[in-house]
Amino acid sequence: MIAATSLTGVPKFTQHKDLVIPTLSILSHDGLLRKGLETPDLSQSMAQKIYRDMVYIRTLDQRMIAAQRQGRLSFYLTCTGEEAAVVGSIAGFSNKDMVMSQYREQAALRFRGFTSKQFMNQLLSNDLDLGKGRQMPIHYGSSRLNYMTISSTLATQIPQAAGYAYGQKLSGNKTCTVCYFGDGAASEGDFHAGLNMAAVTNCPVVFIVRNNGYAISTPTSEQFLGDGIAPRGVGYGISAIRVDGNDALAVYTASVAARKLALENNQPVILETMSYRLGAHSTSDDPSSYRSVSEEKSWHDKDPIVRMKTWLISNGWWCEDQDDQLITAYRKEILEALKAQEKRPPPSIDCLISDVYKTPPVHLLEQFSELKKHIKQYPDHYLKCSMPDKDVSLSTSIGV
Amino acid sequence: MTRMNLLEAVNSALDTAMEVDNRVICLGEDIGQFGGVFRATSRLQEKYGKQRCFNTPITEQGIVGFSIGLAAQGSVAVAEIQFADYIFPAFDQIVNEAAKFRYRSGDQFDCGGLTIRAPYGGGISGGLYHSQSPEAYFCHTPGLKVVIPSTAYQAKGLLLSAIRDPDPVIFFEPKAIYRAEIGDVPTEDYEIPLGVAEITSEGTDITIVGWGAQMQQINRAVAIAEKDGISCEIIDLRSLLPWDVETVTNSVNKTGRLIVTHEAPRTGGFSGEIAATIQENCFLALESPIMRVTGLDTPFPLIFEKEYLPDYTKVYEAIKKSVSF
């Protein structure tokens, strides 16, 4: 329905420039509060936790890239440059809120309490991997931490997050869903489907789009025209906010407000974090072929971790000694976890066929039985499977 | 027992499911107050409210994606895709997401509460985009279950099982016989197990396997063949994934002959899977080649729909050919 007051007698086109969404910014690039702004409502312990988790993920990412280069992992993907966007945002939510993320948000999982050993178990596909060795490295998930297992398919989690949030609303448990994705994923049909579904069904979901400048090699200038992703939310009737993604305080402030809005009004919200993917897309990518060193340097100068540290120190909540100790401790913890967890065996071969269905159907059991016979015939050819001597493991582990 | 048609049986199943379990939610295009373009969801919104039965925007990928999330959260989502021909925008959500949800998470998460209903099949002058039988695409995807009823009794019992099954189910409804197929249906709650075929008629000379609307063509062909003195065993598969290999194997070991028939095109059709499995299991018992009576390898036509469809005359000819091989 169009309101009569919006009628016009002359042809007038609305330009995308007519809707410019401002960017919330609290800390300037030098790590100091912007003039005239007060410190956001943030406790010392929360501020320190945000900082520690940002440092942890930076350390983890550096160490895992090295491990991948050494051939100890098949693949890795960093969060580097976007630590404030991810940690700052998840800190604004309850741990009971569901997180449905893309694949560059390991910092949110860390914030919820994922341990170094758990990261290693997944990255190494060992017997303790919660995903049972089924997905490539970095495809984390933890039901205990309300962190939905991610998939490689882009944007599929967006309509799912709307549905999850609808269920939360019906259950009346006062929780919401946080849905992360990148600027490139926002070109997928599922983005539009998901935002529209969330809007018309009044779901308490906060969509957090990490606008980091690149989708693998494609710059945002070739991904979309117009003023970023947030205005699209407005087009769907969704409240939108944009924030400096390298400013943890701004991201945190916006996230707390977004969650409040989503839950109090049962409505979706979109929050766009403006940042930069400082690293490669993944270990299979080489950014030197599509972007300049000077561009990268300009963003290194805006490093979100340095900015947060400067603010903490200026606030008297942190010091350089603590910083050195923290980094040393994290490096040690991560290296020890890597060394220990890479010694663990792969998951049982039963994990090949369990969980396809709640109970394996007959045809799958038959195929598995044939496979096991074949493996027994060629044991040296299939060294990875920890084939038990007795043929009973399947019946005990998957209840048939 | 009440006399009802297949469509009313679907409606009765949804009503029963929503009544006994308030986690059951129906969503889809035009399914609210209007009750769906075929009226499968009639009166459900009125009875259970707009929160549990509601219209969605026209976005199949949105409907299925939303329903996966809803199911993962603990609700029981019953999504309607208005025509099976329009399920393809949701293909990624079904194949890459719903089917792999439990597996990829190591059973930490699942969307087993998901059922996708879609009217399928020809015979209504629907042309290319209101006639297709896309079951084979989904039968090629581990993690899904695929179910197709052929009678009103089956429709209610199978749909209730599908809704309560712990895995995601695609439930294709034979829209050509929505109103023509009438039978006695219990008013109370009942379930028909998934993965189990039904031998609807016993015989000794030849086995004929089908599902959905094709069962009526089979019955008509068999009525003629029986007059010729050919004893036919008819198997209604009911579930395609998983399908009841044992029942078909036992039957073909007895009869020595098999015809599989479906409306979908032949190449890559599900009859090929059945034929391959049965020749492995029954090779020495076979007395003639396994035959397929199917649609042609064309898009679903409009003006030549009758020529395209594997109707009873084609099934009857195949029976004669098989027994005289």
What does this structure look like?
The complex is a heterodimer of chains A (400) and B (325). Chain A has 400 residues and is an alpha/beta fold. Chain A folds into 2 domains: 18-25 and 42-284 and 291-341, Thiamin diphosphate (ThDP)-binding fold, Pyr/PP domains (Rossmann fold, 3-Layer(aba) Sandwich), CATH 3.40.50.970; 349-397, no CATH class. Chain A has helices spanning 44-69, 83-90, 106-112, 116-123, 157-171, 189-200, 220-223, 230-235, 248-265, 293-300, 304-314, 320-341, 362-377, 393-397, and strands at 23-24, 98-100, 177-182, 205-211, 214-215, 218-219, 239-244, 269-274. Chain A has a 6-stranded parallel beta sheet with strand order 1-7-8-4-3-2, with helices on both faces. A two-stranded antiparallel sheet of chain A has the order 5-6. Residues 389-400 of chain A have low confidence and may be disordered. Chain B has 2 domains: 2-185, Rossmann fold, CATH 3.40.50; 198-323, Rossmann fold (3-Layer(aba) Sandwich), CATH 3.40.50. In chain B, helix 8 links the parallel strand 10 (206-210) and strand 11. In chain B, helix 3 (60-73) runs parallel beside helix 4 and helix 9 (245-255) crosses helix 10. The longest helix of chain B is centred in the first third of the chain and has 15 residues, at 6-20. Chain B is globular. The mean pLDDT of chain B is 98. Classes of the chains: A alpha/beta (400), B alpha/beta (325). Chains A and B meet through helix 5, helix 6 and helix 13 of A and helix 3, helix 4 and helix 5 of B.
